[in-house]
User: Fold this.
Amino acid sequence: MYSCDDVLAELANYLDDDVAAEVRSQLELHLAHCKTCQVLYDSTRKTLMIVTESGSFDLPESVSEGLVSRVMFRIRESEADSES
Assistant:
């Protein structure tokens, strides 16, 4: 089964419907069981819809990468706290 890092690595492709069938099934299996990744997926999908529909600005790649890094850091931090 895919890990949260695997989901993060493939999330953009998944949202673009640009993944192989096997990858899609692994992502969907993980999403069905991981609340954290479900929230990340839903939030990302909704944010993309808002930004795409508004057409008001482009988000530089460096900014989006920074946001993803911070979100994943907090997810890992939260998971580590819950395991303690």
